[in-house]
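Memo to structure team: turn this sequence into structure tokens by end of day. - J.P.
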Amino acid sequence: MRVDEAITGASAAEIAESVRDLIDSGRLSPGDLLPSVRALADRLGVNRNTVVAAYRLLGQAGLVVTLGRAGTRVTAPGPLPTEGYAQNSVLRDVGDGNPDPALIPDLSRALAALAGRPVLYGEPVVDPDLERWAHDWVSPDVADPRAVRITVTGGAVDAMERLLAQALTRDDAVALEDPCFLSSIRTVRLGGYRPVAVPVDAEGMTVDGLKAALEDGVRAVICTPRAQNPTGVSLTARRAEQLRDVLAGHPHVLVIIDDHSAMLTRQPYHSIVGPSHRRWALVRSVSKSLGPDMCLAITASDPDTADRLAMRLSPGSTWVSHLLQRLTVALVTDPEVLAGIDRAGEHYLARNRAFAERLTAHGVACTAGDGLSLWVDVGVPARAVTEKLMRRGWLARPGDEFVLADQSAAHRLRLTVHTLSDADAESLAADIAAAVRATATR
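Reply from structure team:
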């Protein structure tokens, strides 16, 4: 049987799964052309819209790409964009999204005091002191602190991967902000889930976007309440209330709040989880404030979600090292370290605002949000701008890497500038403005 004749199914999901099986078995290879929508619909005896929907599902999963009149082809597997420094580059990296190494607390004093008895199999997986501190940290931000359970994972991304795995099956839909944090896109796509884009505006995740995603059947929602990456937007109190009202009609949809910058942000926390919501998790990482190598996150959740999350931990890492847990407690209860984290948060905000003013003065309007980076609308194709910046010695991130559906992000750059000196910041702002002008006149 020819490969195109091996595609079966009566619904979009069945057709998509049939094509996926052919790809997994090697019968369809990267670059292979799928049947046209009309030809496949006629052969299967289904409506053409059904085939269109099937190809859309495959496209959202990254398995095929639609090329207009050139048809729909199987994609070659490739690495998804990730956060961090670019490897093997001699260029000055201003798109890495890292915290300033000089502002990461010195661990040596705390490490010296960590010696204690060994932890053995079968003991509680969460350090009691860390659990008490975590409860105190999240209690003001949850509806019923007495019902909250604390789980510790190897960072926020680890928490999200395990939370989705315990709640979803392959091809289930997940609502993601658009533009979106690279690690969230990667986690959803590698997990085999279907991302559903929810636009983000100046107040955060949009109400109409969330409504549409819920109507599309999403089983989980991932929302960043503060310092959204890449936009720097934080939820307003009004928007959070509106989103709570929408979610009130869907109490069993898993809501994951990725509050990754909780220790650094200057913005207040506004919850989208109402008191009657049944399945939720508030994830807070220490990586932005204590350093990326501190792979630890606190997940506060309802008891059922906590039990499911613990089951997802048990076959793998089982628990996060108690040495790391104790180190975290030592740092976050040290007044000197906390004062340093506050100074770091002020530094990031001040440097971002100063660069936004420089860029605006050079004719590229920019407003600083919250977080470690800036989201800059250059008004022209950003990839062309990044190519010109490379010739001037800079490596920047184009906005389309963060996009699910929002095509306006193709005119955006995400910049990390807080480690630049004033002279370097001025040079970068001038080079961006020159690159924008050169791109606009092509």
